[in-house]
């Protein structure tokens, strides 16, 4: 029996991976190609391919990515994106082209995601009846391969030729199918509710975690063959298991505080005291190497056959996230950048931003008069052109949106209350909406338009309010479930995103609204709900990331669309940088684009050493 106590040394394996940027936040799963090549996915919505001394990043979503799998014959990845509540989506990407091929929306949480052994099918298991779904890997076309796919399938494995299938259902059954006929050939009762299942011993054994124990069952009859009691998982304790095809027993990892135990059924292998605490999110093994991912952005590698345990830190988050950006009104093309550590002025595509002040509380900014407003849920502060900061009176709690016009400021809070004040703090108007207000834009000093959710056909998602009289006029011509991101009026028109529903299916429209006629015109449609898309109108071109994979620009004068060359980033916001387009990306970076070519010029990151890293393209 081995039982060694070793102080873990955390270091970057420069000979293998160099200084690489990991995820911001939790790394949720890894998919190993070799011991030094693997994919990872995280809560930051990105996928990273780690290879030798470099890594390659692709921002695939604006919400967390919880699962990832890889099709080696096609070089496709499939990822599970979820907000943890109502949105459950699997998207498939061509990794070489960094292009999304198709996406599938599900109503239930996804518990299993894998390509078939030969790569013909994408298999998706959900928490539902008849939960195992098959899709053609290339086209995304759904295939009805099984007569009775079973419920709550959390593990599935096809044979070498994709003609047979073995599944484990959390309801407590193991089933074998003939995929040519779709018929069940064998079915066994077994332990129910096994979590984190792994198959081993040449596909004869299946191990998982249930009720505070690691349990192994025989895949040929469903009977339990081994078990081990484990500590209950909580905020300080995490448990994971891993096994190779040859292993008779799984390897069990138990992280509690700053103690990491590694064991199997037969013996305690290692007892490691770590230099700090971390929670294990996933463990994989390949080529005699373990990969351990954590909830705080780190990934460790550890040889499986070593005498002394040493964890090598392959990557961790080394950047400070940029939270917001806004252009200044002085015509310079300069902009204000809000980060967790400070407020900066961004000058050009190749110059490091200049720090204006520290920041400990603000998350958002908006240009105002000769300076800018900084705000968070509970506070607004105006900073003028001379860098003098002024508190903007008593602020409502839980602010969700701020807009400006001349010297007027509108503020919306979570209580669906709209407040309008001047820069001197004079209160002009309050409106309590009663339903969710999503934004407001001033038409002039006397009129404001408010976008919101709709409660009925007689209560549309856009209303006009007179600031002087308080008169409210519903705009019946705009009909839908919710309107958001309404742009400021220009040439008597605005653009917005309108969520609608038909026969229970939601879609999102990019609309144009004319203030003279109250007419709504649909310019583009996305067949799903997309409440995080942006709209920016720059030099007469309407830019939007509706659809989540690209940023398109609609040039109405030339009657054509253009595509922004976003490379591996996913823009969250786009502003006018005079000679350039500047985007804030979902991964907390900033990109500059040429207005002429629409190609990326440079990318900015702020390192935790407070030095700006500039990548020139």
Automatic annotation (TrEMBL):
Entry keywords, A to Z: Repeat, WD repeat
Keyword hit for Iron: no
Source domain of life: Bacteria
PANTHER family linked to this entry: WD REPEAT DOMAIN 5B, WD40 REPEAT PROTEIN
UniProt protein name: Uncharacterized protein
Native organism: Candidatus Gallitreponema excrementavium
């Amino acid at each position: 029996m081995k039982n060694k106590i070793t102080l873990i040394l955390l270091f970057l394996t420069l000979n293998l991976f160099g200084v690489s940027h990991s995820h911001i936040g939790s790394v949720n799963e890894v998919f190993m190609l070799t011991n030094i090549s693997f994919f990872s996915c995280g809560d930051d919505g990105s996928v990273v391919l780690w290879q030798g001394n470099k890594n390659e990043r692709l921002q695939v979503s604006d919400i967390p990515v919880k699962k990832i799998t890889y099709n080696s014959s096609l070089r496709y990845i499939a990822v599970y994106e979820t907000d943890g509540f109502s949105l459950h989506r699997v998207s498939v990407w061509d990794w070489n082209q960094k292009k999304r091929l198709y996406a599938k929306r599900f109503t239930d949480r996804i518990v299993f995601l894998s390509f078939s052994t030969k790569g013909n099918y994408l298999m998706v298991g959900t928490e539902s009846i008849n939960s195992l779904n098959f899709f053609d890997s290339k086209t995304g076309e759904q295939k009805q391969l099984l007569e009775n796919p079973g419920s709550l399938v959390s593990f599935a494995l096809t044979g070498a030729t994709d003609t047979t299938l073995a599944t484990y259902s959390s309801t407590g059954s193991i089933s074998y199918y003939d995929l040519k006929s779709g018929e069940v050939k064998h079915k066994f009762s077994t332990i129910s509710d096994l979590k984190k299942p792994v198959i081993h011993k040449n596909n004869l054994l299946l191990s998982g975690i249930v009720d505070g124990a690691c349990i192994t069952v025989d895949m040929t009859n469903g009977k339990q063959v081994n078990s081990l009691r484990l500590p209950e998982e909580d905020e300080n304790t995490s448990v994971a298991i891993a096994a190779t095809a040859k292993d008779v027993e799984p390897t069990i990892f138990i992280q509690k505080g700053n103690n990491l135990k590694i064991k199997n059924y037969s013996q305690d292998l290692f007892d490691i005291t770590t230099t700090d605490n971390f929670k294990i999110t996933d463990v994989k093994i390949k080529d005699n190497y373990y990969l351990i991912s954590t909830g705080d952005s780190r990934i460790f590698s550890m040889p499986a056959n070593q005498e002394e345990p040493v964890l090598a830190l392959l990557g961790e988050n080394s950047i400070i996230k940029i939270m917001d950006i806004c252009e200044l009104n002085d015509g310079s093309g300069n902009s204000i950048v809000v980060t967790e550590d400070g407020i900066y002025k961004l000058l050009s595509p190749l110059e490091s931003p200049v720090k204006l002040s520290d920041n400990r509380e603000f998350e958002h900014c908006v240009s105002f008069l000769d300076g800018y407003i900084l705000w968070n849920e509970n506070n607004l502060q105006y900073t003028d052109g001379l860098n003098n900061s002024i508190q903007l009176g008593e602020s409502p709690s839980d602010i969700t949106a701020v807009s400006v016009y001349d010297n007027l400021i509108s503020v919306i809070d979570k209580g669906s209350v709209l407040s309008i004040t001047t820069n001197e703090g004079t209160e002009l108007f309050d409106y309590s909406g009663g339903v969710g207000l999503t934004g407001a834009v001033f038409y002039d000093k006397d009129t404001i338009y408010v976008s919101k959710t709709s409660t009925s056909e007689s209560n549309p998602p856009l209303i006009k309010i007179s600031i002087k009289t308080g008169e409210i006029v519903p705009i019946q011509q705009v009909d839908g479930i919710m309107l958001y991101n309404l742009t400021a009026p220009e040439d008597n028109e605005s653009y917005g995103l309108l969520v609608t529903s038909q026969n229970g299916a939601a879609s999102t429209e990019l609309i144009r609204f004319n203030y003279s006629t109250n007419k709504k015109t649909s310019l583009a449609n996305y067949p799903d709900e997309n409440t995080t898309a942006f709209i920016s109108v720059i030099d007469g071109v309407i830019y939007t990331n509706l659809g989540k994979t690209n940023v398109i620009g609609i040039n109405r004068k030339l009657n054509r669309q253009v595509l922004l060359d976003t490379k591996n980033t996913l823009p969250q916001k786009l502003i006018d940088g005079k000679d350039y387009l500047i985007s804030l990306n979902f991964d907390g970076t900033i990109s500059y684009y040429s207005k002429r070519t629409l190609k990326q010029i440079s990318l900015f990151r702020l390192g935790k050493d407070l030095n700006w890293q500039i990548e020139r393209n």
